Amino acid sequence: MGDSCGVMLVSSDGESLEMSDAIFHRDPEVLALLRDAFAALPHRVGEGLAGRVAATGEPLLLPVVVRDELVASASARFQPLTSRLDVSSPPGPTLAS
Length: 97
Prior knowledge:
Blueprint: E1 4-10, E2 16-25, H1 28-40, E3 43-44, H2 48-56, H3 67-73, H4 79-84
Antiparallel strand pairs: 1-2, 2-3
């Protein structure tokens, strides 16, 4: 596992993604920031990488991650948090069943 990993679930109304209890980051402070951000700012289906996967149902694998591109691809509400993360390896596949 890398620095962080999390499982997001589509809400019962199908409009947003909710972070499950299955979330990890090796730095407890960043983990707390991630939990707070996802609790305060629901992630909309169709928005950002995970939201696009939820909307299309198509898996997404990012073999190479460029930090600036990841920040730019994040929804505007999550860009400040994303820019604080030290992304140096792929976040792993974002999958939908």
